[in-house]
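Take a look at the protein record below and flag anything odd:
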Amino acid sequence: MQNYIKYVMSHMLGPKYIDDMIRVTVCREFLESIKKNVHDQRPAWRIDAAEVDALCDSAFLISDHSLFTGTPRVELCVAVEIKPKCGFLPSSEFITKANAIKKSVTRFRMHQFLKLHQGEISKVSEYNPLDLFSGSKDRIYQAMTALFATPQNNFRIFLNGSLIFGGLGGGMDSSAVRSHETNTAIEDLIKVSGLQLPSFLELVSETIFSSGVLDQLLATQKLDVLDIEGAIHAYYNIISQPCMVCKNSGDPELLDQYSSLHSLPLEKRLKIVRDYLIASTAKDCSLMISFRPVDSGSTGSGYNSIFLESSNQSFEYKARFIDLDMKPLEKMVHYYELDQKIVNFYMKSDDPGGTPYDSTTRGTKVRKIQYHQ
């Protein structure tokens, strides 16, 4: 895991955006206490998703990016955590005609309807990852307003290291900072930072735009060239098992198309699966951006700075990617089955914003929701 982050993800995303991890020895009692804390905060449907292994003898120590290292508690530090999700639409020739909707509607959008049906969320988010990765200031801001309107577990705000807004990944948003607490949390943010909410979202948007922090993330996501519908065939060859997708397909045209993948040399098949799993890490990671106000013109801290013209304030910031876990090879079948389940359910749903999904037509609505809140 440490080598994967250090030599693969750091190379792909840029070493300045990834911190080194320190391996430390831990005892069972410590891990049991962590396990209890996690258990108490997680919803039932996520408890078994990532169990803490209390039998491990070591763990990784990483920085708390909701704070600046060494920042006294009396100083202000505001941080956001964003789960960008997949920032492009696939165009693989191996996507079947029945699943062609994947080429025009984002995976995030389609998955929202399945999550709503399963009780994992209470409403469908209007967030469009294509906006966040667009390179347009206006569309990035639009993405931020949509994330704020429906944070789920995709957007959080921290004030001096404490979560003040956003979810913990709970079912039906049950672990989120409650709505009646939202106004107080935002009022605290405004009081200590001097930023009104639109200005704060503008600060985050401007930082994402000017830093280009998402450029390499998008490039890494695009290592998934064939989509899971193509990569799954290379996977079955690697594990020397009969391809269940081909076995369950009665379409001669598709089988002929899939044969080109099954006849590839081993090295090419390995690369297809390897690139897909690396791209999966990039699609599922989080970005943390921390801010602290500074006097105009002050330098020497080693951090980047940004000037927000609308509020006439300067801020230092740091941006780091977290949750860069290596995806296990044995989950390839799960990824394929989940993909089919998401698309099949979405095709049965009534989504007026889905064909094709172009959030630019709904920007005004999202922004009005934001200001009302």
Notes: The longest helix spans residues 266-284.
